[in-house]
Design a protein that fits this description.
Layout (H helix, E strand, L loop, with lengths): L1 H46 L3 H5 L2 H22 L5 H10 L6 H17 L4 H5 L2 E2 L2 E2 L6 H13 L3 H16 L8 H14 L3 H14 L4 H21 L26 H8 L14 E4 L12 E7 L4 E4 L5 H11 L4 E2 L2 E2 L6 E2 L4 E2 L1 E5 L5 H14 L9 E6 L4 E5 L19 E8 L5 E2 L2 E3 L4 E3 L6 E5 L13 E3 L2 E3 L2 E9 L16
Antiparallel strand pairs: 1-2, 3-4, 4-5, 5-17, 6-10, 7-8, 9-12, 10-11, 11-20, 12-18, 13-17, 13-20, 14-19, 15-16, 15-18
Length: 509
Amino acid sequence: HFYFFISFFLLYLSLVQSLREYIKAEESKLAAVKSWANKLDALTRVSTSDPEGYLGHPVNAYKLMKRLNTEWTELESLVLQNPSDGFISNISTHRQYFPDEEDATGAAKALMRLQDTYQLDSEAFARGKLPGMHSSALLTVDDCFDMGKTAYNEADYYHAVLWMQQALKQLDAGEEAVVSKVDILDYLSYSVYQMGDLPRAVELTRRLLVIDSSHERAGGNLRYYENLLRKQLSELNQDYEPASEEPIQLGTYSRPKDHLPEREAYEALCRGEGLQMVRRSRLFCRYQDGNRNPHLLLKPIKEEDEWDSPNIVRYLDFLSNEEIEKIKELAKPKLARATVRDPKSGVLTTASYRVSKSAWLEGEEDPIIARVNQRIEDLTGLTVKTAELLQVANYGVGGQYEPHFDFSRKDEPDAFKRLGTGNRVATFLNYMSDVEAGGATVFPDFGAAIWPRKGTAVFWYNLFKSGEGDYRTRHAACPVLVGNKWVSNKWIHERGQEFRRPCGLTEVD
């Protein structure tokens, strides 16, 4: 019987130990939940006073995507360890509104797009050091690792290298992280190999194996890299040189070419570089009354020349603050991912080169829309009866529209066939917000950049008087770096303009 008691006692001790572990686990879980709550309280205090301003910072926008996509799921798993029906039910109810994996990936890609366009290294983002501002919006080691992993999963090894390198740098500086140095080196070494830097790939893999000598994939990779490197050196009749000890930064590797032929010129203009200023002496300002239009006689609109040929003008104080707020109010419930027309099929679809939300507003929806449409007609002298609806667009962090034409070219003759109003003869673009950084409208062909100024509007013709397209008007909306960009535009069509803008004597009049 003694042995029975011994067995019971041992079982008892085991149960007591299990109970202690259970209590410890519950306390740990509760502490973790309290930590979450404290962080969320701090975030709420910062963000609720100015949600648009807060989310206008690209790092805040990315971290919001990541937090809702990943971290809330982790919290859900934590709470599910013990029945918490009310909390889980609440999460389940709201889950349909959470961003999905595609949204989180899109937010990461937006940071990389900004990184490329504005030539910002990963540390600038990680430390909140954006042009003209310093912020407490910081990226942790794990954030940087997730950025690199997103790029890696897209086979974008260029950005994978930059972000894995930043994660490694912050980890080496003593920052705590969930991800291990082995994992970072694993991704980084392979990405460096994909960028063609064999010496550095060898060195990074060796560092990994010093930490974890049993890492099978790294061992196999190292042998492969070393053999490949020996073969290359032998073919080039060169001696082995150790990898550079300089950290990988922007410019260490060449950014891969993509589909856009004017990529460098376009992005330089977005940064305010490469602007052509020699024609400024020919530019003037004036009061515009629309050729003595009765609506504008008593209150003409201030007009400034932005460019002389093609002629681009800016109208000051075109929209009032009240009109802007009403247009945004009408548009917000309708906003959806902006689409582009496939030049071959003519079908509207989303595309990576146009990242924004848009909505279409009819003149009958509100007197303000009708009033804005009429003002455009009065000012330009062109009828808006055949124009498209007023399109409202919102460009969030990283939002852009790469170089494009507003008019249809000869290789896409049916682009506007269903409208029956001909081609887009002119573009009238309203700026409905200021933008803290980025977001310019640029024309790579002649090196002009037009910066958003709330309440102003710009206007240009897409077609010559002959009806031929003016290919110089290829333009782009630069990515928004900091802030929140609202615009609305009116695309004016050919039909109805026959006597308002008659043909010229030559093809390029």
